[in-house]
Amino acid sequence: MAATWLKRAVKTAASNEETARTVAAEMIAAIEAGGEAAARDYALRLDRWEGPIVVDDAAIDRVLSSVPAQAREDIDAAIENVRRFALAQRDSVRDFAVEISPGVTAGQRMVPVDCVGAYVPTGRYAHIASAYMGIATAKAAGVRHVVACSAPYRGGPIHPLVLYAMHRAGADTILTLGGVQAIASLAFGLFSGRRADVIVGPGNKFVAEAKRMLFGRVGIDVFAGPSEVAVIADATADAEIVAADLVGQAEHGHESPAWLIALDRGLAEAVMARVPGLIAALPPTAREAAEAAWRDWGEVVVCDSREEAARVSDDYASEHLEVHAADLGWWRERLINYGSLFLGEETTVAFGDKCSGPNHVLPTKAAARYSAGLSVHKFLKPLTWQQATREGAKRLGEITARISRLEGMEAHARTAELRLAKYWPGHNLPLGEPVEA
Fold it and tell me: Which residue from 98, 117, 345, 357 puts its CA 20 to 30 A from 4's CA?
């Protein structure tokens, strides 16, 4: 088996990370020390926002009344799809109890975290879909309070359609904050009085670094990088559609990789010939982003077998993975490393980005090798419990005392020995040799 690259990326995922790390660290330290005043100062300096941070009910009501009917209908339909999928995920995990051995019962309770911070990016685009991906999913998991943040839109308040989506998805508190100052405020409980247990949502490299640095003090969804797409395509694929789907994700930003894994050289060359024209036809903002992304990060590889194509795809572990090839069932069963899988020409990544149901917050930078996208499971803690009868404690006590003493942990052994002495005075159970040293 062999793979031949027709186009290689000229940049790597590590490009420019150091600057983001330095900036995020300085800002987090300043906000932790200076509290809300420091966060407000960053909002003024970076986003030119001097209005209220907390969005009140009156402001929300004004926005609700201004949203066009078609936009309401579309956003509400998308929220419902995301909610239905998230509720199905919630139903896939359950509480249980099982008798491990006579007299010993153990179980699991799926308990949602108390407070979630949902970050909704706003910059080059108004990311309406990111609002409900985090908020609606958290609510489906049973989270009691969601604090949602989004940046001022071009110097003004939160984009009205983003605010509408945040509200309709179920946000309990909405803050006009973006960037590192938003992530730090969510982590430290600024403006809302509630520290987030988990912070979710995509963002730029500064947001990603802030989440990385705060991980441990709070939970996070993924260590996110720029959006990625890979397309596996054989000779049956439509080169125009494949090229359009690569460009469709490249418009996310200047550092968004787009990878084509082709099983036919003619198809690969046709796609490469078509991409520049599709980029040139975009409006200026998207054109600039997609042009840089394809030039610096795009790759095209031709594989001589579907097994080799699957191996290459799993090495990429792409955030989004489309398959435009025969025998979709084989690919679905064979592929193992991806954030979300889109099977067949009829199923573009953009459907998942906006409204199909599965979450669009997904692992990047090959993190799909060991993690998955945002789901209700991120907000649920599988808490275990156990209970023993006196008869059950007899057998557990024997084993615990002996293993503890083999490990040299005498205090552990004595907690078991004490119970055995109380419940079965005068017993003659073998409990191991007490630890002397």
Answer: 345
At residue 364, what is the residue type? T
Strands (E) across 191-281 are located at 198-200, 219-220, 229-233, 258-262
- For residue 61, give both structure tokens: 């009501």
Count of other CB atoms within 10 angstroms of residue 354:
18
DSSP readout, 164-210? HHHHHHT-SEEEE--HHHHHHHHHHTTTTS---SEEE----HHHHHH
Q: Kindly report, residue by residue over 71-129, the tens digit of the pLDDT.
A: 999 999 999 999 999 999 999 999 999 999 999 999 999 999 999 999 999 877 889 99
Nearest to 161 by CA among 82, 253, 60: 60
The residues that are catalytic are: 319-320
The CATH number of domain 226-372 is 3.40.50.1980: yes
Q: What is the pTM of this model?
A: 0.92
* Beta partners for residue 343, in sequence order: 323
Please report where in the chains the tokens 């079965």 appear, as a residue. Answer: 424
* CB-based contact 229:319 (threshold 8 Å): yes
Burial call 54-63: b when 16+ CB within 10 Å, e when fewer: ebeeebbeeb
Instruction: Read off the tokens for 79.
Output: 């929220």
Handedness of CA 42, 46, 52, 56 (dihedral sign): negative
What's the topology of domain 17-221+377-382?
Rossmann fold (3.40.50)
